[in-house]
Amino acid sequence: MKETATIIHSSEERKLIRNAYRRLLRSIKAPLNKEDAVNIRKAYDLAVEAHAKQKRKSGEPYILHPIEVARICVAEIGLGPTAIVCALLHDVVEDTEVGLEEIEDQFGIKIAKIVDGLTKLDGSNNADSAQAENFKKVLSTLVEDVRVVLIKMADRLHNMRTLGHVPPHKQLKVAAETSYIYAPLAHRLGLYQIKTEFEDLCMKITDSETYRKIEKKLKSSEKARKRYINEFMAPIVKGLDDTEIIFRFTGRPKSIYSISNKIKTKQVDFEEIYDLFAVRIIIDVPPKMEKPICWQVYSIITDYYQPIPERLKDWITVPKSNGYESLHTTVIGPKGRYVEVQIRSERMDEIAEKGFAAHWKYKGVQSSDDVYDDWLHGIREILEDQGADAIEFINDFKTNLFQEEVYVYTPKGDMKVMPKGATALDFAFSIHTDIGYHAKAIKVNNKLVPMGYKLENGDQLSVITSKNQKPNEGWIKWVITGKAKGKIRSAMNEERKKKGSLGKEALERKLRNLKLNFEENIDAFIRHFGYKVRVDLYYAIAQNEINLSDLKNFTIEKGKISFAEPDIEPKPTPSAPKRIRKKAVNGQSLLLINGESADQYDYSFATCCNPVQGDEVFAYLTATAGLKIHRTICPNAEHLAANYGYRIMKAEWASTSSREFVTELLISGIDDGPGVIERLSREVSDLGLDIRSFHIDGMQGYFEAKVSLLVNNKNQLNIAIRKLEQLSNVSRVKRNN
Ligand code: MN
Q1: pTM for this structure?
Q2: Is the domain of 511 the same as that of 644?
Q3: Does the active-site annotation cover 13?
């Protein structure tokens, strides 16, 4: 069989494959035992043969992908031989003739299970939530074996790195999925480097213009930055050299994505960001000496530079819940500039960069007080909440497990870590389900608060319970944690079941009157009234939402009831847009959708992001309103593409037209006295563009204006923005979304 593979691949391809495999083997630093070495070779041979006929989108042999995924697992995540074998085999079951049984036969049950976890579900019959179902599957296996998710990360990373060969609208879908789930998951698993790369790669796709701009500015300011860092470090290096401490330092700039975020949220220009980079001092000491020596380094730094006390973060005494340990401080460096300094040991640095796997390496698998335990426990709880469908599950997962945290205390002073945004009632449920169920009132720092009170760092909570208290529907609104939601839902279901039994009795009576067997006909009733499960039908009957006495339009044949047509039509799931065959205007259409004239479809421009001609855009097939054209950086794009990727279609501008687009600008600046408003409105009208609306607010020496304009294309818009930016008093002009 091996010959088949070698015949299919050309000699050049064989060389590529061999080199990739050698590169993988070289990346393995720890010595391999015989069995592992044999297994890796076996997996490689099997994968080469199985994928022999496949090519990647780039035209390269497919096998290069699993080999590179395996290499990322070793070199960038720090995984071992089992993961290498699984990574080599990860696409075999999904894409080739080889079945899971064969994998189990050859490599054993453990590896077969991981490979199964890495195999996508067949989502063809449930398109609406196929993506979500797949995430759910990946996350379910995560609690059994974390390696599944780590290999999945490596898989995604390689796919993202090589996304250039995929058509743009598909890139968008993959990027959205990545920033929606994989990047936060990488963050949560402490895979800092991978998270950062994900974010940058996504931004390159969704907002390439800004990405390139920042990239260029980083490059051109590199020399000056290096000079500054050396100047800053000079006295510290001297101070450290006087001690016995072995150390190294780096001064890398922050990621393009995080810089762009700062520019957006802080409303500043690139040049005004004071913490473009962080200086990292990494010490090489035995574990016992880590903490005192980190503080000694801190002391040396602050001998030379004034620290800013609020910015001191001690993640060594209390590590972050993803395992991150480091001592951070910000000091005032030369020229009065703020400089963030991170002090950590080599061990902490490896955990910070590689996360989960490195964490296990140092802790050992047996460790009981592990920072990941609570988290994995949280995932299990969300998975147990059967009431939630897959999309809801992903949302729960995101709100619960990706969030930053708040630290609160029990009356006895025990610390509890809750996700940010969690409420007093969430806290009650986190202590014990019964305390949640019977919570009557909750005190924060000795004052009564509403159940939905949002927890803040340092809050001390006590819960007053009462036996007679029980949850009601309204409680769901007051909680955000998966545990509390699941528990409240299951209590509500109990309640529904109890009430529903009355409805069931009524239905049984009705069927007896019609001389129908209950079990044989119940499903017809459920379908007719548009429910999914029996309880819901019983409950609706009990609540008089359904009146059985005016049942009509049915026939009974051979003891079976059938209804004329269902009362409730199933929700339509669009799969392709309806063609309306409108004639193209002037023979040329403005937009192309999947390469065809958009004029044959019913389409409109989304008002959430107001695209203008020239923006990067995509089309989204809505359930009822035809196609909507969004900008790729629309705040809704990520959610749409991550959950409903199959509804995304490629859209591109085909021609320039005289069509006008509505766009909104936010202008802010200094209100230095009377006349500013008049001057600005005059200057806006001087732009020569149609103004739809103009609104300006002045406050305490500052003004903010919102201008709605009509433009033909992006070029015209950019010129207008530039002109406005040049006005004295104006400090910032940007598109509103
Ligand atoms: Mn793959």
Answers
A1: 0.68
A2: no
A3: no
